[in-house]
Design goal:
The protein is α/β, with parallel strands linked by helices. The chain is about 20% helix and about 25% strand. Strands 1-12-2-3-4-5 form a 6-stranded mixed sheet, covered by helices on one side. The radius of gyration is 20 Å and the shape is globular. The relative contact order is 0.20.
Protein backbone atom coordinates (compact mmCIF):
# COMPACT_ATOMS: atom_id res chain seq x y z
CA UNK A 1 0.00 0.00 0.00
CA UNK A 2 1.21 3.49 -0.83
CA UNK A 3 0.56 6.96 0.51
CA UNK A 4 -1.15 9.55 -1.69
CA UNK A 5 2.03 11.00 -3.24
CA UNK A 6 3.68 7.72 -4.03
CA UNK A 7 5.70 7.27 -0.83
CA UNK A 8 5.33 3.86 0.78
CA UNK A 9 3.39 4.03 4.02
CA UNK A 10 6.40 2.67 5.91
CA UNK A 11 8.53 5.58 4.69
CA UNK A 12 5.78 8.07 5.48
CA UNK A 13 5.40 6.61 8.96
CA UNK A 14 9.16 6.70 9.49
CA UNK A 15 9.38 10.36 8.47
CA UNK A 16 6.48 11.20 10.76
CA UNK A 17 8.18 9.38 13.64
CA UNK A 18 11.45 11.22 13.05
CA UNK A 19 9.60 14.54 12.94
CA UNK A 20 7.73 13.75 16.13
CA UNK A 21 10.95 12.73 17.85
CA UNK A 22 12.59 15.99 16.77
CA UNK A 23 9.73 18.06 18.16
CA UNK A 24 9.77 16.06 21.39
CA UNK A 25 13.51 16.67 21.76
CA UNK A 26 13.27 20.37 20.89
CA UNK A 27 10.37 21.02 23.25
CA UNK A 28 10.86 18.45 25.98
CA UNK A 29 14.64 18.47 26.40
CA UNK A 30 16.61 21.19 24.66
CA UNK A 31 14.26 24.07 25.49
CA UNK A 32 14.88 23.25 29.16
CA UNK A 33 18.56 22.36 28.88
CA UNK A 34 19.85 25.57 30.42
CA UNK A 35 23.53 26.47 29.95
CA UNK A 36 25.94 29.05 31.26
CA UNK A 37 28.50 30.30 28.76
CA UNK A 38 31.70 31.96 29.95
CA UNK A 39 33.47 34.51 27.74
CA UNK A 40 36.45 36.78 28.31
CA UNK A 41 36.34 40.13 26.53
CA UNK A 42 39.64 42.09 26.37
CA UNK A 43 38.02 45.49 26.43
CA UNK A 44 38.97 47.33 29.66
CA UNK A 45 41.68 50.00 29.86
CA UNK A 46 45.11 48.72 30.83
CA UNK A 47 45.63 48.23 34.53
CA UNK A 48 41.94 47.94 35.41
CA UNK A 49 40.82 44.96 37.45
CA UNK A 50 38.60 42.42 35.62
CA UNK A 51 34.84 42.82 35.90
CA UNK A 52 32.43 39.86 35.94
CA UNK A 53 29.17 40.67 34.15
CA UNK A 54 26.22 38.27 34.07
CA UNK A 55 23.92 38.85 31.08
CA UNK A 56 20.42 37.39 31.17
CA UNK A 57 18.03 37.87 28.28
CA UNK A 58 14.81 36.71 26.64
CA UNK A 59 13.47 34.83 29.64
CA UNK A 60 9.95 34.85 28.14
CA UNK A 61 8.50 33.63 31.42
CA UNK A 62 5.31 31.57 31.30
CA UNK A 63 3.46 30.45 34.41
CA UNK A 64 4.62 27.13 35.85
CA UNK A 65 8.17 27.13 34.45
CA UNK A 66 9.68 25.97 37.73
CA UNK A 67 12.92 24.61 36.26
CA UNK A 68 13.67 27.91 34.53
CA UNK A 69 12.95 29.87 37.70
CA UNK A 70 15.19 27.63 39.79
CA UNK A 71 18.02 27.84 37.24
CA UNK A 72 17.85 31.64 37.11
CA UNK A 73 17.84 31.80 40.91
CA UNK A 74 20.92 29.56 41.01
CA UNK A 75 22.91 32.05 38.91
CA UNK A 76 23.22 34.23 42.00
CA UNK A 77 25.78 31.67 43.18
CA UNK A 78 28.15 33.10 40.58
CA UNK A 79 28.23 36.33 42.59
CA UNK A 80 28.68 38.59 39.55
CA UNK A 81 29.93 42.13 39.91
CA UNK A 82 27.11 43.32 37.67
CA UNK A 83 23.90 41.94 36.13
CA UNK A 84 22.71 43.15 32.71
CA UNK A 85 19.15 42.22 31.70
CA UNK A 86 18.60 42.79 27.98
CA UNK A 87 14.82 42.36 27.97
CA UNK A 88 11.88 40.20 26.86
CA UNK A 89 11.28 38.91 30.35
CA UNK A 90 7.64 38.01 29.69
CA UNK A 91 5.58 35.68 27.53
CA UNK A 92 2.55 35.64 29.81
CA UNK A 93 0.39 38.52 31.03
CA UNK A 94 0.45 36.87 34.48
CA UNK A 95 4.20 36.28 34.42
CA UNK A 96 5.53 39.29 36.34
CA UNK A 97 5.48 37.66 39.83
CA UNK A 98 7.34 34.62 38.49
CA UNK A 99 9.94 36.81 36.75
CA UNK A 100 10.55 38.67 40.00
CA UNK A 101 10.78 35.38 41.90
CA UNK A 102 13.29 34.03 39.38
CA UNK A 103 15.43 37.17 39.37
CA UNK A 104 15.02 37.96 43.07
CA UNK A 105 18.43 36.61 44.19
CA UNK A 106 20.15 38.40 41.29
CA UNK A 107 18.57 41.70 42.29
CA UNK A 108 20.86 41.67 45.33
CA UNK A 109 23.68 42.60 42.93
CA UNK A 110 24.17 45.85 41.01
CA UNK A 111 22.27 45.75 37.74
CA UNK A 112 20.96 47.55 34.68
CA UNK A 113 18.15 46.69 32.28
CA UNK A 114 16.31 47.50 29.07
CA UNK A 115 12.97 46.14 27.90
CA UNK A 116 12.01 44.31 24.72
CA UNK A 117 8.76 44.18 22.80
CA UNK A 118 7.53 41.15 24.74
CA UNK A 119 7.81 43.06 27.99
CA UNK A 120 5.31 45.59 26.66
CA UNK A 121 3.06 43.33 24.56
CA UNK A 122 1.84 39.76 24.80
CA UNK A 123 3.01 37.24 22.19
CA UNK A 124 0.99 36.31 19.11
CA UNK A 125 0.55 32.95 17.46
CA UNK A 126 2.36 33.06 14.12
CA UNK A 127 3.77 30.59 11.63
CA UNK A 128 7.56 30.24 12.24
CA UNK A 129 8.00 30.13 8.47
CA UNK A 130 7.09 33.82 8.36
CA UNK A 131 10.48 34.65 9.87
CA UNK A 132 12.15 33.21 6.77
CA UNK A 133 9.78 35.11 4.48
CA UNK A 134 10.39 38.37 6.34
CA UNK A 135 14.14 37.83 6.16
CA UNK A 136 13.97 37.51 2.36
CA UNK A 137 11.73 40.57 2.12
CA UNK A 138 13.81 42.62 4.58
CA UNK A 139 10.91 43.12 7.00
CA UNK A 140 11.39 42.70 10.76
CA UNK A 141 9.09 43.72 13.61
CA UNK A 142 7.67 47.17 12.96
CA UNK A 143 10.72 47.91 10.78
CA UNK A 144 8.89 47.29 7.52
CA UNK A 145 5.78 45.47 8.73
CA UNK A 146 2.43 47.07 9.47
CA UNK A 147 1.84 48.18 13.10
CA UNK A 148 0.28 45.54 15.31
CA UNK A 149 -3.43 46.05 15.90
CA UNK A 150 -5.21 44.79 19.02
CA UNK A 151 -2.02 43.77 20.86
CA UNK A 152 -2.28 42.46 24.41
CA UNK A 153 -0.60 44.87 26.82
CA UNK A 154 1.56 43.32 29.55
CA UNK A 155 1.67 44.78 33.08
CA UNK A 156 5.34 45.70 32.68
CA UNK A 157 5.15 48.69 35.01
CA UNK A 158 5.19 46.47 38.10
CA UNK A 159 8.30 44.72 36.86
CA UNK A 160 9.97 48.07 36.19
CA UNK A 161 9.10 49.32 39.67
CA UNK A 162 10.53 46.19 41.29
CA UNK A 163 13.76 46.43 39.31
CA UNK A 164 14.08 50.10 40.23
CA UNK A 165 13.38 49.40 43.91
CA UNK A 166 16.19 46.84 43.90
CA UNK A 167 18.58 49.48 42.59
CA UNK A 168 18.79 48.26 39.01
CA UNK A 169 19.14 51.14 36.57
CA UNK A 170 16.54 51.62 33.86
CA UNK A 171 18.37 52.38 30.60
CA UNK A 172 15.31 53.19 28.48
CA UNK A 173 16.62 55.77 25.99
CA UNK A 174 18.84 57.22 28.67
CA UNK A 175 22.26 57.28 30.28
CA UNK A 176 23.05 56.20 33.83
CA UNK A 177 26.06 55.57 36.05
CA UNK A 178 26.85 52.93 38.62
CA UNK A 179 29.78 52.40 40.96
CA UNK A 180 30.87 48.75 40.96
CA UNK A 181 33.89 47.50 42.92
CA UNK A 182 35.24 51.02 43.12
CA UNK A 183 34.86 51.57 39.36
CA UNK A 184 32.68 54.27 37.86
CA UNK A 185 30.71 52.59 35.07
CA UNK A 186 28.68 54.58 32.54
CA UNK A 187 25.81 53.01 30.60
CA UNK A 188 23.91 54.17 27.54
CA UNK A 189 20.72 52.32 26.73
CA UNK A 190 17.94 52.29 24.17
CA UNK A 191 14.34 51.15 24.14
CA UNK A 192 13.54 48.30 21.76
CA UNK A 193 14.38 48.99 18.09
CA UNK A 194 12.23 45.99 17.06
CA UNK A 195 9.14 48.11 17.70
CA UNK A 196 10.79 51.44 16.82
CA UNK A 197 10.99 52.74 20.37
CA UNK A 198 14.71 53.56 20.16
CA UNK A 199 15.60 57.26 20.33
CA UNK A 200 19.33 57.48 19.78
CA UNK A 201 19.26 61.27 19.44
CA UNK A 202 18.50 61.46 23.18
CA UNK A 203 21.70 59.65 24.14
CA UNK A 204 24.12 60.44 21.31
CA UNK A 205 27.60 61.70 22.02
CA UNK A 206 29.66 58.68 22.91
CA UNK A 207 31.19 57.40 26.15
CA UNK A 208 31.51 59.66 29.16
CA UNK A 209 35.16 60.57 29.42
CA UNK A 210 35.19 60.90 33.22
CA UNK A 211 33.92 57.31 33.73
CA UNK A 212 36.25 54.33 34.07
CA UNK A 213 34.36 52.37 31.41
CA UNK A 214 31.26 52.75 29.24
CA UNK A 215 28.84 50.08 28.00
CA UNK A 216 26.01 50.30 25.44
CA UNK A 217 22.88 48.20 26.08
CA UNK A 218 19.92 47.43 23.80
CA UNK A 219 17.44 44.59 23.36
CA UNK A 220 17.39 44.06 19.58
CA UNK A 221 20.72 44.45 17.72
CA UNK A 222 19.46 46.27 14.63
CA UNK A 223 22.18 47.58 12.34
CA UNK A 224 21.15 51.23 12.75
CA UNK A 225 21.79 50.88 16.48
CA UNK A 226 25.10 49.07 16.07
CA UNK A 227 26.19 51.71 13.54
CA UNK A 228 25.37 54.53 15.97
CA UNK A 229 26.98 52.97 19.05
CA UNK A 230 30.11 51.95 17.14
CA UNK A 231 30.51 55.30 15.39
CA UNK A 232 30.27 56.92 18.83
CA UNK A 233 33.17 54.67 19.96
CA UNK A 234 31.48 52.49 22.56
CA UNK A 235 33.90 49.64 23.32
CA UNK A 236 31.19 47.09 24.18
CA UNK A 237 27.57 46.59 23.08
CA UNK A 238 25.30 44.06 24.84
CA UNK A 239 22.08 42.83 23.20
CA UNK A 240 19.64 39.91 23.06
CA UNK A 241 16.44 39.33 21.04
CA UNK A 242 17.68 36.82 18.45
CA UNK A 243 17.27 33.64 20.54
CA UNK A 244 20.44 32.55 18.75
CA UNK A 245 18.21 31.62 15.82
CA UNK A 246 16.20 29.29 18.11
CA UNK A 247 15.71 26.59 15.46
CA UNK A 248 19.15 26.02 13.98
CA UNK A 249 20.59 23.55 11.51
CA UNK A 250 23.31 21.32 13.01
CA UNK A 251 26.79 22.09 11.59
CA UNK A 252 25.33 25.11 9.79
CA UNK A 253 23.78 27.41 12.36
CA UNK A 254 20.98 29.93 12.42
CA UNK A 255 18.65 30.65 9.51
CA UNK A 256 17.20 33.87 10.90
CA UNK A 257 17.97 36.56 13.49
CA UNK A 258 14.54 38.28 13.63
CA UNK A 259 16.27 41.56 12.79
CA UNK A 260 18.64 42.80 10.11
CA UNK A 261 21.76 41.46 11.85
CA UNK A 262 23.60 38.79 9.86
CA UNK A 263 23.39 35.19 11.08
CA UNK A 264 27.15 34.97 11.76
CA UNK A 265 26.60 37.30 14.71
CA UNK A 266 23.32 35.77 15.87
CA UNK A 267 24.79 34.87 19.28
CA UNK A 268 27.99 35.11 21.24
CA UNK A 269 30.90 37.52 20.93
CA UNK A 270 31.83 39.25 17.67
CA UNK A 271 32.92 42.68 16.52
CA UNK A 272 31.17 45.39 14.56
CA UNK A 273 33.05 47.97 12.47
CA UNK A 274 31.97 51.23 10.89
CA UNK A 275 33.62 54.55 10.00
CA UNK A 276 37.00 53.25 11.09
CA UNK A 277 35.73 52.33 14.55
CA UNK A 278 35.27 48.88 16.07
CA UNK A 279 33.12 47.69 18.98
CA UNK A 280 32.80 44.33 20.64
CA UNK A 281 29.25 42.99 20.34
CA UNK A 282 27.81 40.29 22.56
CA UNK A 283 24.39 38.90 21.62
CA UNK A 284 22.78 36.57 24.13
CA UNK A 285 20.81 33.62 22.75
CA UNK A 286 18.54 33.99 25.77
CA UNK A 287 16.94 31.35 27.94
CA UNK A 288 13.32 31.27 26.77
CA UNK A 289 10.97 31.09 23.81
CA UNK A 290 7.70 32.59 22.71
CA UNK A 291 4.96 30.67 24.55
CA UNK A 292 3.44 29.60 21.21
CA UNK A 293 6.70 28.13 19.89
CA UNK A 294 8.26 26.51 23.00
CA UNK A 295 11.01 24.70 21.09
CA UNK A 296 14.74 25.07 20.54
CA UNK A 297 16.93 22.99 18.28
CA UNK A 298 20.74 23.06 18.12
CA UNK A 299 20.50 26.26 20.18
CA UNK A 300 20.16 25.58 23.92
CA UNK A 301 18.88 28.29 26.28
CA UNK A 302 21.62 30.23 28.01
CA UNK A 303 22.93 33.04 30.14
CA UNK A 304 26.46 34.39 29.81
CA UNK A 305 29.11 35.31 32.35
CA UNK A 306 31.36 37.81 30.62
CA UNK A 307 34.70 38.56 32.22
CA UNK A 308 35.71 42.01 31.04
CA UNK A 309 39.51 42.05 31.11
CA UNK A 310 42.15 44.68 30.29
CA UNK A 311 43.31 44.93 26.71
CA UNK A 312 46.45 42.98 25.91
Amino acid sequence: MHARHGLPLKVTASLAAVGAAGVAYAAGFEARSFRLRRITVPVLPAGMRPLRVLQVSDIHMVGGQRKKRAWLQSLAGLRPDLVVNTGDNLSDTEGVPEVLDALGPLMDFPGVYVFGSNDYYGPRLRNPGRYLIEKVQGRHGLNGNKPVVGAVHNPWEGMRDAFDAAGWLNLTNTRARLKVNGLELAFTGLDDPHIKRDRYERVAGGPETDADFSVAVVHAPYLRVLEAFTADRYPLILAGHTHGGQLCVPFYGALVTNCDLDTKRVKGLSTYETQGQRSYLHVSAGCGTNRFTPVRFACPPEATLLTLAPKA
